Amino acid sequence: MTAVFANKVVLVTGASGGIGRAVALAFAKEGARLVLAARSADRLAQVEREVRSVGGEALSAPTDVTSPEAVTALVKAATDRFGRIDVLVNNAGIGKVGGVEEESFADDVRDTLQASLFGMVDVTQRVLPLMRRQRTGAIVNMSSVMGRKAFARFGSYAIVMHAVSAFSDSLRQEVAGSGIRVSVIHPGLTATELLREAKEDEMPPPFRHMTPLSPDDVGRAVVAAVRHGKRRVVLPRMAGALLLGEALSPRIGDLIAAALAKRPIARALGMSDGRTYHEVLRRQAGTTGTTAG
Ligand SMILES: NC(=O)c1ccc[n+]([C@@H]2O[C@H](COP(=O)([O-])OP(=O)(O)OC[C@H]3O[C@@H](n4cnc5c(N)ncnc54)[C@H](OP(=O)(O)O)[C@@H]3O)[C@@H](O)[C@H]2O)c1
């Protein structure tokens, strides 16, 4: 542990599980005080206990980020308890799988925009005046590798993750010089319940053989991003090559995505150790007793 985050107040949305829980625990291990937000009060209470068990202090604030009243109440609860917010991690979100021709596609875009983008915009707008008064703060927005390169059957999710990336880029330049820093994180496939509804044989080809990151990998990356003031973090490292290929030409990006769909290539590029997303989730469910996708 270093002193950088000792007693800092870190608000994490989507903290009831997956990446948000891991982010909260990673900051708690650094001595930060946590404000935990998500809809499920039971799961938040469990994460609060875990934060305490690593010696941290936490306030659970059951919140639906799509409700402006709930977001106002969240920020009030945080400031009533701690008086400040040093780090905001905008992580709450959902993800749907489905092709553009499917009837539900437009609804999937709307629902994902609501939870993963407008929730983020609202929380950010409520926290920014406080950070401006403090003249210091860090905002971390959770995007995805798909915030720079869309994959087939992930259009609704990729649209919103691109929007999160653009929102972060605009915000970063708007607050430049104010003492507030903005980071955007682009993780690859991660072993959480985000895609719990996706059937194994419906996973988009590049994901079929990919071994997911652990949420703890992403949690540590978020802490490091704030510590070092990183503007953009892509993980795992190989995903950076995919995004570079895509930036050079969509043809190269598509070729890399198609190559990743082949197990030996995914292995050779270090994106697969043989375990798939569903296998990892089944194993996790076996150890925690929760249901996996
Ligand atoms: N898993 C991946 O492969 C992956 C990869 C890249 C980026 N991401 C991003 O990482 C973030 C976290 O996802 P995850 O993978 O950890 O999935 P997850 O395990 O499903 O967690 C999502 C979190 O968001 C919360 N949430 C959802 N809707 C909410 C709402 N309206 N208000 C408040 N909280 C809400 C959920 O809690 P409640 O249900 O209790 O509200 C939960 O805590 C998402 O933004 C996702 O896009 C995930």
TrEMBL record:
It comes from the Bacteria. Coiled coil: none annotated. One of its GO terms (molecular function) is oxidoreductase activity, acting on the CH-OH group of donors, NAD or NADP as acceptor. Keywords: Oxidoreductase. SUPFAM superfamilies: NAD(P)-binding Rossmann-fold domains. GO terms for cellular component: membrane. The keyword Oxidoreductase applies. Pfam families: adh_short. Residues 8-192 form the Ketoreductase domain. Belongs to the short-chain dehydrogenases/reductases (SDR) family. This is Short-chain dehydrogenase. It comes from Actinacidiphila guanduensis.
